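Suppose a colleague, Dr. K., hands you the sequence of a protein chain of 105 amino acids and asks what its three-dimensional shape might be. Before reaching for any lab equipment, you can write down a predicted structure in token form. Begin with the sequence itself:
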Amino acid sequence: MNFKDHVAQDIANVFFNTDEFSDLVTIDGQECTVQIDSDRLIKRSEKEYNGITAGIILYFIPVLDYPNKPKVGNTQIFNNKLHFIDSVLESDGVYEIVINQNRGE
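The predicted structure, expressed as tokens, is then:
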């Protein structure tokens, strides 16, 4: 087993362990394990959203759990509420996604 294989196992078994760090949510009708990061959202909102975070969620999800890469501007039903995808970053097998209930353009 190489290093990338170990990292992939850690993503599923350690970082996205619902007994430790993660939450189960529903995204577009599918139950998914994510990490919601309010602290990181506050830091990003100071730079990108003028400090306004109402209706905004930043979460991490394994790429393997979201095979069709989400696209900025598309809609997403997150826990039965309509959101718009504001940002998608991919790093080391994990997406960082910011969704927003308000469509501000």
